[in-house]
Design brief:
It is built from twelve helices and two strands; from the N terminus they run αααββααααααααα. It is mainly α and 264 residues long.
Length: 264
């Protein structure tokens, strides 16, 4: 009598929509470089004939790819489905949107920043080119010069982090860090956390920059940890106000309360 075959060897079978199969095949061809960015895909009719499906199936597959930012659907005589040129900014924007939709708590975003940005600072001390060092220096000076302007200060703060991201030689770190920073920015949007906190942030950024400029990766990494933890501590009183609203009405109430406190 033969041995029994374990059921664990078999995997459940699930129904797969034809549009998913079509979308996956087109996606793989793009990822493998067989279809270049900017190229127009064949028409819905041609694709339907080739895949042996309906035009409705092709239309749904293209809609999936468009939602993923892989193709762009253009209308008109010269329209069609065009492969998009995906860059770091668009990837960061997609990740930012995902984090916002999932309503990831600020503390968890901070934990992720602590895992990524100190490594970026250490790498920047090793790989930063002179022109990016100059960009970071200009950003630091801009932060120091605009302690009384929330908008201008954040502009130079962003400039510093963008230059840092490009300095460290790994675009994956850059995309992740930019997305996390954007979530933080959005959470604190409209909140003026004061001149003193901006002064602290400027000084902390300067410590990171000075270590990078010296080529001291260990010091740069430590300074970035201190920056993130310090910012989290200084801005803690605003975290509750920055929590995602349960409804547009509740958000309106919070904004009204903030305005009342400021007028006082």
């Amino acid at each position: 009598m033969g041995s029994k075959v374990s059921l664990r060897l078999f995997k459940p079978v699930r129904a797969v929509r034809l549009s998913d199969v079509v979308a996956d095949q087109i996606r793989q061809l793009i990822l493998q470089g067989h279809i270049e960015p900017g190229h127009r895909l064949p028409s819905e009719r041609q694709l339907a004939e080739r895949f042996g499906t309906s035009r409705a199936c092709i239309r749904e597959a293209l809609r999936q790819l468009e939602q993923q930012g892989i193709v762009e659907i253009r209308k008109g005589a010269r329209g069609g489905a065009f492969v998009t040129r995906v860059d770091g900014e668009s990837l960061a924007s997609s990740l930012t949107l995902l984090l916002k939709l999932r309503r990831i708590p600020i503390q968890q975003v901070t934990e992720a920043r602590l895992a990524i940005e100190p490594v970026m600072a250490r790498r920047a001390a090793q790989y930063a080119r002179p022109e990016l060092i100059e960009e970071m220096a200009a950003a630091i000076e801009g932060m120091k010069a605009h302690l009384d302007s929330e908008a201008e200060f954040e502009h130079f703060d962003d400039a510093f982090h963008h230059a840092l991201g490009r300095s460290q030689g790994n675009p994956v770190f850059e995309f992740l860090a930019m997305a996390l920073l954007e979530v933080i920015r959005d959470a604190f949007s409209g909140i003026d956390y004061g001149r003193e906190n901006r002064r602290r942030l400027a000084r902390s950024h300067a410590r990171v920059f000075n270590a990078i400029r010296r080529g001291d990766g260990v010091a740069a990494e430590r300074a970035m940890v201190a920056l993130i933890k310090g910012a989290n501590r200084w801005l803690a009183p605003f975290v509750a106000s920055a929590a995602p609203p349960s409804s547009s009405e509740e958000r309106g109430k919070r904004l009204t309360r903030r305005g009342t406190r400021r007028r006082r």
